[in-house]
Specification:
There is one protein chain. This protein has 223 residues and is an alpha/beta fold. It folds into two domains: 2-117, 3-Layer(aba) Sandwich (Rossmann fold), CATH 3.40.50.720; 131-217, Alpha-Beta Plaits. The protein contains seven helices and eleven strands. The longest helix has 15 residues, at 76-90. The relative contact order is 0.10.
């Protein structure tokens, strides 16, 4: 697999090191010649000094044959432009962009970036999973179609406790395939009724999160 990494800061450096250790073919694009030199001297990799948002630089890096371009600079605007140029000009099959401000994730998704990575969102999800009373936890976002995997923790006050799965009134494009009870996963259709303490794994869209929260948790809203 041929991968172009744009940005040789800490994220780009360690990503490149990991990819090279797996035997992948990697080229790094970096504006700062000192950081670019670090890729070649410390990792034995290939680095091009230049602006990854420019067509000429991407062309020099061989973007037309790249399987993946990962834009991991510290600037969200640069990462968005890099990924867009890779898609529109070079038809790169997979574009991945680092997002530093979680508020920008919606924009990246709407503009056709295949996948985004937000350290803030990842850390938030990990923290939420460690808070027993937190009712609504984001587990995973699939950028294709804004699909979200979330976890909902039922309490005695949740409106669906004591009810059967058959009477669930879920919002559009939403399903609850799995219930985790006593530490074990169960198919929703295999349980008689929901109980306090159940953890539901739901698949929904970004736009239906609030409606899902109201349907399952009542007045509690997603954090």
């Amino acid at each position: 697999m041929y991968i172009i990494v744009v940005g040789a800061g800490k994220v780009g450096f360690y990503l490149t090191r990991a990819l090279l250790s797996e035997g992948q073919e990697v080229v790094v694009i970096e504006k700062d010649p000192v950081k670019a030199d670090r890729i070649t001297t410390a990792l034995g990799g290939t680095a091009i000094t230049g602006d990854g948002a420019e067509v000429s630089t991407l062309e020099l890096a061989g973007a037309s044959r790249a399987n993946v371009i990962a834009a991991v600079t510290g600037d969200d605007e640069d990462n968005l432009v890099i990924a867009q140029v890779a898609k529109a000009r070079f038809n790169v099959p997979r574009t991945i962009a680092r997002i530093n401000n979680p508020k920008n994730e919606f924009i990246f998704t709407k503009l056709g970036i295949d996948a985004t990575v937000s350290a803030t969102q990842v850390i938030l999800a990990l923290i939420q999973q460690e808070i027993p009373q937190h009712p609504f936890v984001h587990l995973l976002t699939l950028q294709d179609g804004d699909v979200e995997f979330v976890e909902l923790h039922l309490t005695a006050d949740s409106p669906i406790v004591g009810r059967t799965p058959a009477v669930l009134n879920l919002p559009p494009h939403t399903s609850i395939p799995v219930v985790i009870r006593d530490g074990l996963p169960h198919d929703v259709s295999a349980i008689d009724q929901f109980e306090a303490g159940d953890r539901l794994v739901a698949v929904t869209t970004v736009g239906q999160e609030a409606a899902l929260g109201r349907a399952v948790l009542g007045e509690l809203q997603p954090a």
